[in-house]
């Protein structure tokens, strides 16, 4: 049986971008710092990353599509935080961001990580963005 396994070293010949949703920026800024840290720890130079800012998680798939269609990027890290509120808005935004990123990556045949936190409370978001539970983005 053949084993296919990824390599955790950054290929410096590849161009990577981070798309960050600015809504809930007090959380998403931590996710960006975590992504940059992981990139550096695996051999990448943070100065080689491009940071693309979008208003919220709903806009991530559009920005991802444009980034991959440009031909400039070999991979993209998508980050955001959707926190449940009193209305069904959370369900719509989190579902569309998830499906949108999946569809775009399949359509372009290039990888994108999905680091969009979908949480029930601000406390959960803070925990998952790098305090108690480690950075889950």
Fill in the keyword field for this structure.
137 residues, alpha/beta, Rossmann fold, 4 helices, 4 strands, 39% helix, globular
Structural summary, described in words:
With 137 residues, the chain is an alpha/beta fold. The chain has a single domain (16-128), classed as Lumazine/riboflavin synthase (Rossmann fold), CATH 3.40.50.960. The chain contains four helices and four strands, in the order βαβαβαβα. Strands 2-1-3-4 form a four-stranded parallel beta sheet, sandwiched between helices. α3 (89-108) links the parallel β3 (75-83) and β4. α2 runs parallel beside α3 (89-108). The chain is globular, with a radius of gyration of 15 Å. The N and C termini lie far apart (32 Å).
Secondary-structure-derived class: alpha/beta
| Helix share, percent | 25-40%
CATH homology superfamily name = Lumazine/riboflavin synthase
Oligomeric state = single chain
Strand order within the widest beta sheet = 2-1-3-4
Q: What is the top-level CATH class?
A: Alpha Beta
Rg is 15 Å
> What is the number of beta strands?
4
Globally, the shape reads: globular
Main sheet, how many strands, which sense, barrel?
4 strands, parallel
CATH topology annotation: Rossmann fold
Indicate the CATH architecture. Answer: 3-Layer(aba) Sandwich
Compute the number of structural domains: 1
Q: List low-confidence stretches.
A: none
Distance between the termini: 32 Å
